Request: fold
Amino acid sequence: MLASVTSNGRIDRLAIGLSGLCLVHCVATAVLVLMLASAGGLLVDPRIHEVGLALAIGLGALGLGRGIFDHGFMMPSSIGGIGLGTMAASLTFPHGGEEVLISVFGVLVLALGHDLNRRAGL
Reply:
């Protein structure tokens, strides 16, 4: 089962989708916090960010690590690792503009790593 999930870039496509959801979450949170401070409070709960980061790290390790064994290229994993590190670093900032910008940048870099990983496996 694990081999079928990680083959043919499925895990990378899933991870890119998760990155997209994270991007939507970050932007939507910023907009909601600016527009509706009380409704936006639920979305800025630190547990959402911690769980999302844990999922990203798990999928990143699985997909990007599997790519190293499948195609032997380290660059996609290195780029993805930079994105994961940037996302983790964003958790150290207080909620606000800086945190959102750093999170979005990390998500985009991680998605790039997964896309490069997927393309290297073709």
